[in-house]
Amino acid sequence: MGRKARILYATSGTAPGLTREALQAVQVARALAPWYEVDILCPMLGRLGHVVDFHGARLLRVPLAGEGEEAAAAFARAMRRQLADGVYEVVHVRTPVEGEAALEMRKDGGYTLIHEPAPPSELMALAGSEALGRYAGAERRIASGSDVLVVHGPAAEGRAGRKATVIPPGVDTDTFAPLRVSSGRDVVVVLGGEAEPVEGVHLVGIGERWPGGWMPEQASDLALVLAGAAACLLVAPAGWDAGIDRTPEGILEALACGRPVVAPRLPEVTEILGEGFLYDPALPGDGARAVREALGAGARGAPDVRERYSASAMRARILALYASIVPPGGETPFVPSS
Fold first, then answer.
1. Do the Cβ atoms of 272 and 248 come closer than 8 Å?
2. Edge-to-edge, what's the strand order for the sheet holding 112-115?
3. Number of C-alpha atoms within 13 angstroms, CB side, residue 130?
4. Strands 53-54, 57-63: parallel, antiparallel or unpaired by DSSP?
5. Cβ-Cβ contacts under 8 Å for 194 (sequence gap 6 or more)
6. How confident is the model over 11-47, as pLDDT tens digits?
7. pTM more than 0.70
8. CA of 165: how far to CAs of 143, 227, 322, in Å?
9. Residues 172, 224: contact at Cβ < 8 Å?
10. Which residues are CB-neighbours of 304 under 8 A, at least 6 positions away?
11. Omega within 30 of 0 (cis) for the link into 16
């Protein structure tokens, strides 16, 4: 089949790990590494050691000096160095930290630029509220200037204001499997912020509400959190937003664990839940009403989510996108999925 094309997948989220960005990097590596030479560039936060092989891809972890915006600037410089030193056919960016550098250097690099908007990474959040505001503007520029825009659903495509490739998110169905609730209490896990109090119901929060309305979900493993809390329900609170693409992975993971979900009535939510247990964020008390209805109904997670949003289906769509840009290489003949 000949030489493998070179791919650079860059994200200001950390890998390896169990954050959203790390799990997405795993899926990209698994989808592409058999057919392409894949480099994954990410920051090295904390004390994790350097990893060379990452599901068949090469993981390039960048040690960062400084904190906040200084660390983000250091990662952007590392992105520029990587683009200057390497020859890539495709560059895939997730956040504005690396995305601005890729957009700036695309003319000289001659690569196809893919932008897949992501919620704020840990590195972005550490940069502070003023930086998050600037990143929101940068994300719009990158989305407009990229060759290919990847979003998770039709609603995000409409909000982006341009043609996009829709790749629905995927759920690792080995990790997120139906759980048995052992507690007799009504326990509700709240995804990424605060929810209205519900009398007689214990609320367990995940994640933090960052300035500017950004609400990243940084739980180490939602399945374990749901099991540890003996949760019977997951709530996505009002204000749940991630810029151009409101990523619904947490909702999908809860459904795959057999947990019903209460969520604000947003287009990307109804794409998954239909009419489900939805509430109007502008109507006081409506969130509590939806929680009580879901608890009273004894509802379970969507039975078909494990088939509709499987990680294997997502990997097939990622590979199909890349195959449409640059031919796959390697020793094994490439057979497109049907």
1. yes
2. 53-54, 57-63, 37-44, 6-10, 90-93, 112-115, 148-151, 165-166
3. 2
4. antiparallel
5. 205, 209, 237
6. 988 887 767 788 889 999 999 999 999 999 998 865 5
7. yes
8. 12, 35, 11
9. no
10. none
11. yes
